[in-house]
Write a structure and sequence with these properties.
15 strands; alpha/beta; 302 residues; 38% helix; Rossmann fold; 10 helices
């Protein structure tokens, strides 16, 4: 049995990971901002005040750091962008420096990142060796990953799971597009040629556990083996929901509604592939987007 500390444990991925670990008999310590909801073994931290209950992390086997301000919850004002950036860079540095100072540090830190690292890259195939982009999210991801350096310098195996779009019922994609498709007004966004680097929630959790138990370090793309274009995603969702997909959504309309956030999340193209996961022997449960969508929406194949 392992003892794993997790930040962001109440988020979509965090909740699923906690359930998976506890179902298999592992002990989970939640790293939480809310002392009133913390259990006796949980770790309370305050990123703004730069405080954390370090003594409770002594002897932990692994740490999974998922916490960060949601990037798709609202339009990006300058204040919102600063919160997104600081919640990742400042929180990660606090955690990494704390782990580096422990007498009995963890053997592994999974410090989350995202495919936003690559920026808008058209149809270029993106592996973990690809250069970073030059937009807001790319700079956030670079700072996010760099902030974990103190842990790596202290000899803790540090992994940066660069997660794609997680396909789940409450996930960021289906949450936003399910209703228009149900109403029969779903369609491609912009040109439809932009690539969407998806991964099912089940495979996301399985990959995180694979990284906890394995020996990989550095960046690892957590994306499905077959990235698809927005047009292909639209057609797949139409088949799964048995709805038409004939109403294209202009990119300008997305930007008008959601500003820079909408443009970055809906129209950029990231053809990211999981080279390092596959080379290490990881196998996917959901190898196609349609299979992941059917699982998430409980729509079995005919």
């Amino acid at each position: 049995m392992s003892r794993i500390a997790i930040t962001g444990s109440t988020g979509l991925i965090g909740e699923a990971l906690v359930a998976s670990l506890t179902d298999d008999g592992h002990q989970v310590q939640r790293v939480t901002r809310n002392p009133d909801r913390a259990g006796a073994d949980d770790v309370v931290w305050d990123v703004g005040a730069r405080t954390i209950e370090a003594e409770k992390l002594e002897g932990v086997d692994g740490v999974v750091h998922l916490a960060g301000e949601p990037i798709g919850a609202s339009r990006w004002t300058e204040t919102t962008k600063r919160r997104i950036h600081d919640s990742r860079e400042v929180g990660t540095r606090l955690l990494a420096e704390t782990l580096a100072r422990l007498q009995d540090p963890p053997r592994v830190l999974l410090s989350a990142s995202g495919v936003g690292y690559y920026g808008d890259r058209g149809d270029e195939v993106l592996t973990e060796d690809s250069a970073p982009g030059d937009d807001f999210l790319a700079h956030v991801c670079m700072a996010w990953e760099a902030a974990a350096r103190p842990a790596a310098d202290a000899g803790i195996r540090t992994v940066h799971p660069r997660t794609g779009v997680v396909i789940a019922k409450e996930g960021p994609l289906i949450d936003k597009i399910e209703l228009p498709f149900k109403l029969g007004v779903g369609g491609t966004v912009g040109s439809g040629r932009q690539y969407v680097p998806w991964i099912s929630l089940e495979d996301q959790v399985r990959a995180l556990r694979f990284l906890l138990d394995g020996d990989l370090a550095g960046p690892v793309n957590l994306t499905g083996p077959e990235p698809v274009t927005n047009r292909e995603l639209t057609k797949a969702l139409g088949r799964v929901m048995n709805r038409p997909t004939v109403f294209p959504i202009p990119a300008l309309a997305v930007k008008a509604l959601y500003g820079e956030m909408g443009a970055d999340l809906a129209t950029v193209s990231q053809r990211a592939v999981p080279d390092r996961l596959l080379a290490a022997g990881f196998t996917f449960v959901h190898t196609t987007l349609e299979a992941a969508l059917r699982e998430a929406l409980d729509r079995p194949a005919a």
